Amino acid sequence: SNRLQFSAAPARDMMMSHRQPKHAENDDNQVLALNNYAEGFLVKQGSRVKNWKRRYFVFHDGCLSYRKDSRESSKVLHTDVVLDVFYWTGVQFGLSIKLSSGRSLYVSPASEEQACTWYEVVQGYVMREQRSRQLQHVHRGRQTHMEPIWENEHAANLVQFRLLH
Questions:
Q1: pLDDT tens for each residue of 15-43
Q2: Which of 39, 40, 38, 46 is nearest to 21 (CA)?
Q3: Looking at the domain assignment, is residue 109 inside a domain?
Q4: Domain-located, residue 153
């Protein structure tokens, strides 16, 4: 048959072979989210060693960075441009964030609500960027065929004068 089959084996294997993310029990597990901006604690999977570490993430206008804690004086451990975001079934409330470096960053927010918030902020940015690129492409295509609206400044001033009086 022509049906596609998808295997969940990689996610299942990852869940069995690695520790699950641990979230702190305290009340700093909040996410602050605005248009094109989110910040808060997420538990991330290591890129080389597949352990889970709690880090403070900031997403702002397409850039995602994280540091060890929420203090602004703390060293930024990593920054990258986000290309896309997906829900990920490898862990509870999991998200997979595709970065411009080619890496997929796997994170686990503390709750389903936080996962939705992070997803909506990042995906909202990604969608706006895609629409913006599409519009730029359309405008570039049209610019070669556009004619000037006014033949000279005098005609423009004359019309403006008529509109004002």
A1: 433 456 666 666 577 888 777 899 999 99
A2: 46
A3: yes
A4: no
Among 84-88, 142-146, 147-151, top mean pLDDT goes to 84-88
In a domain, 150, yes or no: no
Other Cβ atoms closer than 10 A to 93: 22
Write the CATH number for 100. Answer: 2.30.29.30
* Cβ neighbours for 148, distance < 8 A, ≥ 6 positions apart: none
The DSSP code sequence of 4-36 is -----HHHHHHHHHSPPP---SSTT--EEEETT
HSE, side-chain direction, 13 A CA sphere, residue 91: 26
| 4 part of a folded domain | no
> Each residue of 91-146: pLDDT tens digit?
999 999 999 999 999 999 999 999 999 999 999 999 999 998 888 877 676 655 55
Residue given tokens 């503390």 in the structure block: 110
What is the count of structural domains for the chain?
1
- Backbone dihedral angles phi then psi of residue 117, each to the nearest 5 degrees: -60, -50
What is the value of pTM for the model shown? 0.68
